[in-house]
Amino acid sequence: MTPLSRRAFVTAAPAALLVGCGGHPAHRATAARPVITPSPPPAAARAAPALRRSAPVRLQIPAIGIDTPVMQLGLAPDGSVQVPPVTADDRAGWYRHSPTPGQVGPSVVLGHVTVGAYGDGVFRDLARLHRGDRIVVRLENGTAAVFIVGVVRTVAKADFPVEDVYGDVSRPELRLITCGGPRTGDGYLDNVIVFAAQKSASP
């Protein structure tokens, strides 16, 4: 990650809640909460070598039938992370100020659980993932980075675990984020967060 993108990543982290599912506006976190360290992913996911920077172009999660193009997301005017647009052709979005999948650090990918009048979003079944499930991220340079799910957490948006999601880690990891929990007039009350670590890479 370049110094500029690293600064943008760190600056954005406290405000980066995915709360715009279904077309509702996003808002900022009010404060960082105590860090709760997730359980480590399976041992098989611990020794993968890091990859060079290359943007993700496709995300595949066989266990829940996801095979989606990946768009790039930046920052919204209020300093929060952008979310993918609400369209019938819903896609996942990679936060471009985070590491690319396979680089050391937490690569962050966002997606909607619902897309307003269009119905289900691309991450509608994200909460159904389990420890050990496989995630494949295909990169612009032709490489495929393979991740293994370690933990799936549902957390209240008011208690979004900023450090767990955006904090430094010593290996290539992946964070998938969507909305979840009860729905209110302003959207969903919770976030579903998948924590995964890289297992391997292939051409």
So how many helices?
2
Low-pLDDT runs: 1-8, 10-20, 22-41
Helix content: under 10%
Query: CATH homologous superfamily name?
Result: Sortase
Tell me the number of structural domains: 1
Total strand count, please? Answer: 8
Q: How would you summarize the topology of this molecule?
A:
Blueprint: H1 3-12, E1 56-61, E2 66-73, E3 92-95, E4 105-110, E5 134-139, E6 144-156, H2 162-166, E7 172-184, E8 187-202
Parallel strand pairs: 2-3, 4-7
Antiparallel strand pairs: 1-2, 1-5, 3-4, 5-6, 6-8, 7-8
InterPro entries: Sortase, Sortase_dom-sf, Sortase_F, TAT_signal
Protein name: Class F sortase
Keywords: Hydrolase
Tell me briefly what this model is.
The protein has 203 residues and is mainly beta. The protein contains two helices and eight strands; from the N terminus they run H-E-E-E-E-E-E-H-E-E. It has helices at residues 3-12, 162-166, and strands spanning 56-61, 66-73, 92-95, 105-110, 134-139, 144-156, 172-184, 187-202.
Explain the overall architecture.
This protein is mostly beta strands and 203 residues long. The protein has one domain: Sortase (Sortase, Chain: A, Beta Barrel), CATH 2.40.260.10. It is 7% helix and 35% strand. The chain contains 2 helices and 8 strands, in the order H-E-E-E-E-E-E-H-E-E. The protein has helices at 3-12, 162-166; strands spanning 56-61, 66-73, 92-95, 105-110, 134-139, 144-156, 172-184, 187-202. It has an 8-stranded mixed beta barrel with strand order 1-2-3-4-7-8-6-5. The longest helix is centred in the first third of the chain and has 10 residues, at 3-12. It is globular. The chain starts with a helix and ends with a strand. Residues 1-8, 10-20 and 22-41 have low confidence and may be disordered. This is Class F sortase. InterPro entries: Sortase, Sortase_dom-sf, Sortase_F, TAT_signal. Keywords: Hydrolase. It holds the Pfam family Sortase.
